[in-house]
Write a structure and sequence with these properties.
By secondary structure, the protein is of the alpha+beta class. It is 35% helix and 20% strand. The strands form three sheets. It has a five-stranded mixed beta sheet, covered by helices on one side. Strand 3, helix 2 and strand 4 form a beta-alpha-beta unit. The two termini are 29 Å apart.
Length: 235
């Protein structure tokens, strides 16, 4: 995988997230510091820019929601750490909002290029608005890419993490427009006898439309998720 990342400057869902060591607004970190935590790693084009400022404020306001589902936020751009600090301080002075997660200063673009955050058709230096959801085992589970002029919808990123965690917990899938506490999709049967049995269950319980699409309510221990204590404890 390292060779593929080096040659293509890109990663895919299901691959192990590339390791990194970085300088941030909260000190030096490495990906290895976050073992056992889910991570939302996101890039932004530049400090002191309007769309990015609204995103930082929105991520900061949502940080508690991410912590409650064992998820830590990490921002990144190719700006310097001094620029990051000046920017987050300006946000704090003008809004009273502290940015409670680290922002990586990727000055040489090494991390950005490992993850494929730079689109040469858009800019040779600025990172586009990438989002990588990395699970507690270090595997990339979701990749989102937004253009420079469109801000991210933070509640959807929260929902994606919740859906992934629910799917892992229940060994099931989530349907379109799923939100927490709603039923999940049961894996379809793999034998004819299981198919007949599934259709009988659907007829009895009214929990699906046919053998290939039926639902169940998640167990209570999968609904709330794990709580993340002190995501930035090491920083």
């Amino acid at each position: 995988m390292d060779y593929e990342i080096m040659m293509n400057g890109n990663v895919r869902i299901g691959q192990r997230a590339p390791e990194f060591d970085a300088i941030t607004t909260m000190g030096n970190i490495s990906l290895n510091d976050y073992k056992g935590k889910w991570i939302v790693l996101f890039s932004h084009p530049g400090d002191f820019t309007p769309v990015c400022t609204t995103e930082m404020i929105s991520f900061a306001r949502a940080n508690t929601y991410f912590e409650n589902i064992n998820t830590c936020l990490i921002g990144l751009s190719v700006d310097s750490n001094s620029s990051h600090l000046a920017w987050v301080y300006d946000i704090y002075c003008r809004t009273g909002i502290r940015i409670p997660f680290p922002i990586i200063a990727d000055r040489n673009g090494e991390i950005a290029r490992k993850y494929g955050m730079i689109s040469n058709d858009v800019s040779n230096t600025e990172t586009v608005r990438n989002v990588y959801v990395i699970d507690d085992k270090g595997i990339i589970r979701t990749i989102l890419i937004y253009p420079l002029n469109i801000g991210r919808f933070i509640p959807e990123i929260v929902r994606i993490v919740q859906a992934l965690q629910m799917s892992d917990c229940t060994n099931a899938s989530t349907p379109a427009n799923w939100i927490p506490n709603q039923p999940v999709i049961i894996p379809p049967p793999s034998t004819f006898n299981e198919l007949i049995e599934r259709n009988s269950e659907i007829e009895k319980n009214r929990n699906g439309i046919n053998w290939y699409l039926s639902f169940k309510q998640p167990d209570n221990n999968c609904i709330d998720g794990d709580e993340c204590n002190n995501c930035n404890n090491k920083l």
